[in-house]
Amino acid sequence: MDVFEAIMQRRSVRQYKPDEVSVSDIKKVLEAANWAPSARNTQPWHFIVARGAKKDEFARLYGQIVERGMPPAGQRTPDQERRVEWARTLGKAPVLIVALTRRGNDAAGTKASLESTCAALENLMLAATALGLGTCWMTGPLAEEAKLREIFSIGPEWEVVATTPLGYPDGLPNPPARQDPELKQKVTWIGFSS
Ligand SMILES: Cc1cc2nc3c(=O)[nH]c(=O)nc-3n(C[C@H](O)[C@H](O)[C@H](O)COP(=O)(O)O)c2cc1C
Known about the structure:
The protein is an alpha+beta fold. The protein is 40% helix and 13% strand.
Protein backbone atom coordinates (compact mmCIF):
# COMPACT_ATOMS: atom_id res chain seq x y z
CA MET A 1 0.00 0.00 0.00
CA ASP A 2 1.50 3.37 -0.92
CA VAL A 3 1.44 6.31 1.43
CA PHE A 4 -1.52 8.04 -0.28
CA GLU A 5 -3.64 4.89 0.03
CA ALA A 6 -2.73 4.60 3.71
CA ILE A 7 -3.66 8.24 4.30
CA MET A 8 -7.05 7.77 2.61
CA GLN A 9 -7.81 4.43 4.22
CA ARG A 10 -6.90 5.35 7.80
CA ARG A 11 -10.06 5.73 9.86
CA SER A 12 -10.77 6.11 13.55
CA VAL A 13 -11.69 2.51 14.28
CA ARG A 14 -13.99 1.89 17.26
CA GLN A 15 -14.74 -1.81 16.75
CA TYR A 16 -12.10 -4.49 16.63
CA LYS A 17 -11.84 -8.21 16.07
CA PRO A 18 -10.55 -10.06 19.12
CA ASP A 19 -7.51 -11.32 17.15
CA GLU A 20 -4.16 -10.63 18.80
CA VAL A 21 -1.64 -8.39 17.06
CA SER A 22 1.79 -9.99 16.73
CA VAL A 23 4.65 -8.37 18.62
CA SER A 24 6.54 -8.11 15.32
CA ASP A 25 3.70 -6.04 13.81
CA ILE A 26 3.56 -3.86 16.93
CA LYS A 27 7.31 -3.29 16.55
CA LYS A 28 6.84 -2.35 12.89
CA VAL A 29 4.38 0.42 13.71
CA LEU A 30 6.61 1.65 16.54
CA GLU A 31 9.57 1.74 14.16
CA ALA A 32 7.53 3.88 11.74
CA ALA A 33 6.81 6.23 14.65
CA ASN A 34 10.46 6.35 15.57
CA TRP A 35 11.39 7.62 12.07
CA ALA A 36 9.26 10.77 12.35
CA PRO A 37 10.86 14.20 12.08
CA SER A 38 11.47 15.94 15.39
CA ALA A 39 12.44 19.38 16.59
CA ARG A 40 16.25 19.61 16.69
CA ASN A 41 16.19 15.85 16.15
CA THR A 42 15.30 15.37 19.81
CA GLN A 43 13.12 12.29 19.14
CA PRO A 44 11.26 13.13 22.36
CA TRP A 45 8.59 10.39 22.23
CA HIS A 46 7.97 7.40 24.41
CA PHE A 47 5.25 4.80 23.80
CA ILE A 48 3.62 2.61 26.42
CA VAL A 49 2.23 -0.54 24.80
CA ALA A 50 -0.25 -2.31 27.05
CA ARG A 51 -2.50 -5.31 26.93
CA GLY A 52 -4.32 -7.28 29.62
CA ALA A 53 -5.23 -5.87 33.04
CA LYS A 54 -3.67 -2.40 32.66
CA LYS A 55 -5.37 -1.88 29.30
CA ASP A 56 -8.68 -2.96 30.85
CA GLU A 57 -8.17 -0.59 33.80
CA PHE A 58 -7.58 2.25 31.32
CA ALA A 59 -10.74 1.31 29.42
CA ARG A 60 -12.81 1.34 32.64
CA LEU A 61 -11.51 4.85 33.32
CA TYR A 62 -12.39 5.99 29.79
CA GLY A 63 -15.84 4.44 30.18
CA GLN A 64 -16.42 6.46 33.36
CA ILE A 65 -15.32 9.64 31.59
CA VAL A 66 -17.68 9.07 28.66
CA GLU A 67 -20.59 8.15 30.96
CA ARG A 68 -20.32 11.46 32.80
CA GLY A 69 -23.14 13.78 31.97
CA MET A 70 -25.15 11.03 30.32
CA PRO A 71 -28.45 9.68 31.63
CA PRO A 72 -28.22 6.46 33.66
CA ALA A 73 -28.06 3.11 31.84
CA GLY A 74 -31.43 2.18 30.43
CA GLN A 75 -32.32 5.79 29.67
CA ARG A 76 -29.65 6.41 27.05
CA THR A 77 -30.05 6.75 23.31
CA PRO A 78 -28.52 3.96 21.20
CA ASP A 79 -25.77 6.37 20.16
CA GLN A 80 -24.96 7.18 23.81
CA GLU A 81 -24.90 3.45 24.59
CA ARG A 82 -22.53 2.84 21.67
CA ARG A 83 -20.18 5.58 22.85
CA VAL A 84 -20.08 4.19 26.39
CA GLU A 85 -19.54 0.64 25.11
CA TRP A 86 -16.71 1.80 22.84
CA ALA A 87 -14.97 3.57 25.71
CA ARG A 88 -15.50 0.83 28.28
CA THR A 89 -14.11 -1.88 25.99
CA LEU A 90 -12.00 0.14 23.53
CA GLY A 91 -14.09 -1.65 20.94
CA LYS A 92 -12.47 -4.95 22.07
CA ALA A 93 -9.06 -3.85 20.81
CA PRO A 94 -6.34 -6.16 22.14
CA VAL A 95 -3.65 -3.47 22.51
CA LEU A 96 -3.49 0.08 23.82
CA ILE A 97 -0.73 2.56 23.04
CA VAL A 98 -0.10 5.69 25.11
CA ALA A 99 2.05 8.34 23.42
CA LEU A 100 4.19 10.46 25.74
CA THR A 101 6.52 13.31 24.97
CA ARG A 102 9.39 14.67 27.03
CA ARG A 103 8.64 18.08 28.54
CA GLY A 104 10.83 20.92 27.23
CA ASN A 105 12.61 23.53 29.36
CA ASP A 106 9.97 26.11 28.46
CA ALA A 107 6.59 26.38 26.72
CA ALA A 108 8.18 26.63 23.25
CA GLY A 109 10.27 23.52 23.92
CA THR A 110 7.24 21.56 25.11
CA LYS A 111 5.26 22.69 22.05
CA ALA A 112 8.00 21.50 19.71
CA SER A 113 8.21 18.23 21.62
CA LEU A 114 4.45 17.78 21.36
CA GLU A 115 4.48 18.46 17.62
CA SER A 116 7.27 15.94 17.12
CA THR A 117 5.36 13.24 18.96
CA CYS A 118 2.17 13.99 17.01
CA ALA A 119 4.18 13.41 13.82
CA ALA A 120 5.39 10.12 15.27
CA LEU A 121 1.89 9.04 16.25
CA GLU A 122 0.54 9.80 12.78
CA ASN A 123 3.38 7.73 11.28
CA LEU A 124 2.37 4.92 13.62
CA MET A 125 -1.25 5.14 12.51
CA LEU A 126 -0.43 5.16 8.81
CA ALA A 127 1.91 2.19 9.22
CA ALA A 128 -0.85 0.39 11.13
CA THR A 129 -3.26 1.06 8.25
CA ALA A 130 -0.74 -0.36 5.78
CA LEU A 131 -0.60 -3.54 7.89
CA GLY A 132 -4.41 -3.86 7.94
CA LEU A 133 -4.56 -2.64 11.55
CA GLY A 134 -6.85 -0.01 13.03
CA THR A 135 -6.22 2.83 15.46
CA CYS A 136 -8.17 5.73 16.96
CA TRP A 137 -6.45 8.89 18.19
CA MET A 138 -8.01 9.49 21.63
CA THR A 139 -7.45 12.43 23.94
CA GLY A 140 -10.75 11.99 25.78
CA PRO A 141 -9.06 9.76 28.39
CA LEU A 142 -6.82 12.70 29.35
CA ALA A 143 -9.83 14.19 31.14
CA GLU A 144 -8.62 12.02 34.05
CA GLU A 145 -4.94 12.55 33.45
CA ALA A 146 -3.89 12.03 37.07
CA LYS A 147 -5.55 8.60 37.14
CA LEU A 148 -4.15 7.73 33.72
CA ARG A 149 -0.68 8.62 34.98
CA GLU A 150 -1.21 6.44 38.02
CA ILE A 151 -2.33 3.42 35.99
CA PHE A 152 0.83 3.52 33.87
CA SER A 153 3.24 5.06 36.43
CA ILE A 154 3.98 8.03 34.17
CA GLY A 155 6.49 10.45 35.71
CA PRO A 156 6.26 14.28 35.70
CA GLU A 157 8.97 14.62 33.03
CA TRP A 158 6.47 13.29 30.49
CA GLU A 159 3.55 15.03 28.84
CA VAL A 160 0.72 12.66 27.86
CA VAL A 161 -0.04 13.33 24.18
CA ALA A 162 -2.72 10.85 23.14
CA THR A 163 -3.77 7.24 23.34
CA THR A 164 -4.86 4.75 20.70
CA PRO A 165 -6.14 1.22 20.57
CA LEU A 166 -4.42 -1.10 18.09
CA GLY A 167 -6.08 -4.12 16.56
CA TYR A 168 -7.75 -5.58 13.49
CA PRO A 169 -10.80 -3.50 12.50
CA ASP A 170 -14.18 -5.17 12.66
CA GLY A 171 -15.50 -3.11 9.75
CA LEU A 172 -14.42 0.38 8.76
CA PRO A 173 -16.49 3.54 9.30
CA ASN A 174 -17.35 5.67 6.29
CA PRO A 175 -14.87 8.46 5.69
CA PRO A 176 -16.18 11.75 7.08
CA ALA A 177 -16.66 14.45 4.42
CA ARG A 178 -13.97 17.06 4.02
CA GLN A 179 -15.01 20.60 4.96
CA ASP A 180 -13.22 22.01 1.92
CA PRO A 181 -12.48 19.13 -0.47
CA GLU A 182 -11.22 21.43 -3.22
CA LEU A 183 -9.03 23.34 -0.76
CA LYS A 184 -10.44 26.69 -1.79
CA GLN A 185 -10.56 28.15 1.72
CA LYS A 186 -7.95 26.11 3.57
CA VAL A 187 -5.02 27.04 1.34
CA THR A 188 -3.54 30.42 0.49
CA TRP A 189 -1.42 30.39 -2.64
CA ILE A 190 1.15 33.15 -2.99
CA GLY A 191 3.13 33.75 -6.15
CA PHE A 192 1.07 31.26 -8.21
CA SER A 193 -1.22 32.28 -11.06
CA SER A 194 -4.81 31.07 -10.49
C1 LIG B 1 -6.56 15.32 18.74
C2 LIG B 1 -7.61 14.26 18.51
C3 LIG B 1 -8.34 13.80 19.60
C4 LIG B 1 -9.31 12.79 19.42
N1 LIG B 1 -9.93 12.27 20.52
C5 LIG B 1 -10.83 11.27 20.35
C6 LIG B 1 -11.40 10.63 21.49
O1 LIG B 1 -11.12 10.97 22.64
N2 LIG B 1 -12.28 9.63 21.30
C7 LIG B 1 -12.62 9.19 20.04
O2 LIG B 1 -13.40 8.27 19.94
N3 LIG B 1 -12.07 9.76 18.93
C8 LIG B 1 -11.18 10.78 19.05
N4 LIG B 1 -10.58 11.33 17.95
C9 LIG B 1 -10.91 10.83 16.60
C10 LIG B 1 -11.75 11.82 15.81
O3 LIG B 1 -13.08 11.78 16.27
C11 LIG B 1 -11.65 11.44 14.30
O4 LIG B 1 -10.31 11.59 13.88
C12 LIG B 1 -12.54 12.31 13.43
O5 LIG B 1 -13.90 12.13 13.73
C13 LIG B 1 -12.32 12.01 11.93
O6 LIG B 1 -12.52 10.64 11.65
P1 LIG B 1 -11.35 9.78 10.98
O7 LIG B 1 -10.20 9.72 11.96
O8 LIG B 1 -11.93 8.41 10.74
O9 LIG B 1 -10.92 10.44 9.71
C14 LIG B 1 -9.59 12.30 18.11
C15 LIG B 1 -8.83 12.77 17.03
C16 LIG B 1 -7.83 13.72 17.23
C17 LIG B 1 -6.99 14.17 16.06
